[in-house]
Structure formats: structure tokens, C-alpha cells
Design goal:
The complex is a heterodimer of chains A (about 260) and B (about 100). With about 260 residues, chain A is mainly alpha-helical. Chain A has one domain. Chain A is about 75% helix and about 0% strand. Chain A is elongated. In chain B, helix 1 runs antiparallel to helix 2. Chain B starts with 16 loop residues before the first helix and ends with a helix. Chain B is elongated. Chain B contains three helices and no strands. Chain B has about 100 residues and is mainly α. The chains are: A mainly alpha (about 260), B mainly alpha (about 100). Chains A and B meet through helix 2, helix 3 and helix 4 of A and helix 1 and helix 2 of B.
Amino acid sequence: MMMKIRNDRPFAQALPEDRDRLASLQESLARCGMACANLLQAWAGGADGAARGDDGAGGQEPSGALRLLNQSAWIGELNLQLAVLTAMQSRILPRLMDRGIDRELAPIGERATYGLWVGGNRWGAALCRLLRRLPDLPKADPSGGGAGRSCLVAAMAALQQLHELLIHALRWRAQWGLLDPRMPDLPRPTALERELAQLERAWLAARFCGLDERRAVLRQIGHLQHWLAGFRDRRVNRHLVVRKQTTHPRPWLNRMVRAGVSG
Amino acid sequence: MSLPNVPDINPTITLTREEVYHLLLASVAMEELGLANIMNAEGEKIQKFLSSDEVCLEALVMIGRSVERMMRTVMKSQLLLLCKLEDILWLEEDPNDDENSE
């Protein structure tokens, strides 16, 4: 079910005597974030369905997963858009904080924040399922290393985009947390953590291209796992304290990579 | 050489600086809302497609291409809106400050 993003307040509040015009702008930015979340969740649903189809017998070939992955490159544009939205919010936040949170604004911000985080996690889980199919592609196409290399590049890019997307969602939470300190914590990304663990195992078992290239993807997975582990800490959840993450016992480098797993 | 003269038009603007500031902020808010509606429509398109019986990879890839084009356009507009907002926020400051500092 789509969230309603219609907002008539800017029209009503465009009147010169309006004293809360920045709040209406902030509301529009929140609704833009909600639309981003809607789009992300819808796309994640489609990709998830395609990935699950791959898992079943007689499903699509691994090359389908690679095509879908390449077609998901617009997540980069979405990231840029979220960066612009958070930049706009940071310009008006100091002014809004002086006057306190608008009662109508708080639930809208909460829904946008929650939607972005959940949408990002859902896309992450679907992405992991798609990426699990990629190591099978070179087996299906033994003609050369070209397919393997394009898999590696697509996997690296998609994982980095996912990480960036989750950082944006958390940054969004931090910004709205300034306006509304009572905003609830974001849910723990357990499904994504589980999918990442499975993806790690699949890529550790992969045998194609060079060892260094595979390690690069595994390192990216480990980096994401470490970042999510840091998210378990409530202070990171609420205030984006990056320093705390570096003290987390789990190493950012994949354990097997550190141990020098053989190719 | 004189400037061209347009007859029968009286372009007198009666808005104050404060009113202009409010209206410009509202225009950014409305443009943002327009972009949100465009993105939301794209999301609804995907949902509609997924709810149909014939969901194939080829169609999903085509939808992905459409989303990519739309996102690129929306992102460009967002960048312009950020620049516009920054300029509007400058307006909030007292214009006399610049004159006094010179």
C-alpha cells in the first residue's frame, strides 16, 4: 500500500502572514523522502521476486541476475538525491530547531525515516539474493573471464551503493532526531545481516577470476557487516556515532580473507 | 538607442521583501512536492506491474530503465532546487547589513 504524499500545506502557507513556512518546506522534503522510500521498496519487491525465481528449479539464468543488477544502477542517483535532500534539510534545520517541532510534522518525518531504512534493508536483502547467483555465471559461460569480471564490478558497485544508501537513511534519522528527540529507534536489520552472511559464504566458495578480485568483493561484504554490527549499539542508531563502530570487536576485514583463503 | 517599450502593460510589483521570501520558500516546497509525486508515480507503476500475473525479467529490466531515466531527471532538478534554496535563505538576512559593511 502506497503512502499518501499529497501536501496542500505549502499552498495554504504561501500567504505572507504565514509564520511557519520553513515547516511546510521541511514537510515537503519529508514527503520527497517518503516517495524515495516507496520507489525503493517497490523496486526491491520486484528484484526480490526475480531473485527468488532464480532460486527455484527452472528459474531464470544467472545472466538475468546480472542484467537486473546492472539495471539497478539508478540506486546511485537515488543516493545523490538523498544527499541533496539531507543537505536542504541541514540548511533549514537550525531555523526550525529554534521554534520546536510542528505536531503535524513529527509523524511524517517518522514515516519517511522508517520507510527509507526499511526500504534500504529490503533492497539490501534482495541484492544479496541476486549477488548469490553471480558466482554461477562463469560456470554457465566458460568462454572467457569477461563474464566473471563484469560480475565482480557489478557486485562491488551494488554493495557500495547499498552501504551509501543505508548511511543516508541513518543520516536522515539523525536529522529528524534533532527535531523530534522522541522519535523511536530504527529496527535492527536482522534479515539483511542474515542475507549478508549467506552471501559471504557463497562468494568464499566461488572460484573464478583472480583471488584479489574476489577478495575485493568479500572485503566489501565484511565492511558492510561490520558497519551493521556497529548499528546494534543504540548510540550509533540514534546519533550516528561513527567512532564507536571502529571499536567494535568484529574486524571490518572478512575473517577468511584475513586468514588468506586460497583461490 | 532606446530600450524597447511594451505598451499597455503595467508591471508594478507590490510585494514586499518579506512576502517575496515567503513565496519563494513556498515555491521550493511545491516543486519538491511535484518531484515527490513523480517518484511516487514511478513506484506505483512498479507495484502495478508486480501485481499482474505476467511478471517477466525482460519487463522488469525495461521498468528499471524507465526508473533510471526518471531518477536522473529528478536528481538534476533537485540540485537546482538546492541552489535556489540557498539563495532564498540569503534573502532572509537584512539587506542593510551589506550596505553598512561597505
